[in-house]
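Hey team,

Filing this mostly as a record. A colleague (T.K.) asked me to run one chain through the structure pipeline before their review meeting, and I want the input and output archived in the tracker in case anyone asks later how it was produced. No errors, nothing strange. Just documentation.

Input sequence:
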Amino acid sequence: MRTLFIFIGLYQGANGLFMLLAPALWYASIPGVPETGPANLHFIRDIGLAFIAAGVGLSIGAVRQERRTVLIASIFLGGHALLHLAEMLHGTTPSDALRDVVLIALPGLLPLAALTVSGGRTA
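Output structure:
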């Protein structure tokens, strides 16, 4: 579990760092994002900070074997994943759905699923 949490934490943290440091480039280079409307660089940076916080929380929780820290870090990621899954119910292309499942839903929900399956253990 620990390796999974650290890997997902690094993935989420790297995405957040990209959003924070280069929001216009992030906006232009992530498939599907430009179709959501005009870029709001401040808002992208705000969300980047949430991804960084979640990634750091997952990593710290994994290293310290603190279930509560992993759980708290997963609130944003899980909510973000569920939002994307709910939006898929309103129609999306198969390629967009696959992208969202692989890049958003799985990394967002895996920590919560892993905690559930492991009985709350982070090791």
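Quick notes for T.K.: Helices lie at 2-21, 23-29, 41-64, 67-88, 94-117. The first helix runs from residue 2 to 21.
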